[in-house]
């Protein structure tokens, strides 16, 4: 993805999160992956990831992007304490492509 597409993905995810009342703690979009840290939601992780992938694919396709955007699957990690959550937020915010 180029910088414009990265911004489209970011804004699309934030808009969808607001629509479904999903609290995102940190989000960074890179040319070949994203880091998303969010609080639990009524939908399963699988459903939320699928939702975000679907809405971003549609948004990019509407703007002329062709072909495959995301790979199958994703990596998930759980946070069980406030310090762990804070560390993950710092990681996402400081991660470089």
Could you please describe the fold and organization of this structure?
The protein is mostly helical and 97 residues long. The protein has one domain (3-94). Helix content is 49%, strand content 11%. The protein has helices spanning 3-19, 45-62, 82-94, and strands at 24-29, 34-38. It has a two-stranded antiparallel ribbon with strand order 1-2. β1 and β2 form a beta hairpin. The two termini are 12 Å apart. The relative contact order is 0.18. The mean pLDDT is 90.
Termini separation comes to 12 Å
Number of helices: 3
Total number of beta strands: 2
Mean pLDDT: 90
- Report low-confidence residues grouped into runs of 5 or more: none
Major sheet: 2 strands, antiparallel
Query: What order do the SSEs take from the amino end to the carboxyl end, as H and E?
Result: HEEHH
Number of domains: 1
Beta strand %: 5-15%
**What structural class do you assign from the helix and strand content?**
mainly alpha
Fraction of residues in helices?
40-55%
Which descriptor suits the 3D outline?
A: globular
Task: Report Rg.
Answer: 13 Å
**Spatial sequence of strands, sheet with the most strands:** 1-2
């Amino acid at each position: 993805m180029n910088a414009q597409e990265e911004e489209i993905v970011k804004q699309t995810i934030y808009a969808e999160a607001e629509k479904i009342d999903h609290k995102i703690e940190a989000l960074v979009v890179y040319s070949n992956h994203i880091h998303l840290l969010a609080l639990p939601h009524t939908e399963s992780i699988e459903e939320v990831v699928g939702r975000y992938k679907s809405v971003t694919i549609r948004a990019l396709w509407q703007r002329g992007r062709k072909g495959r955007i995301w790979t199958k699957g994703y990596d998930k990690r759980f946070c069980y304490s406030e310090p762990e959550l804070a560390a993950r937020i710092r990681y996402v915010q400081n991660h470089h492509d």
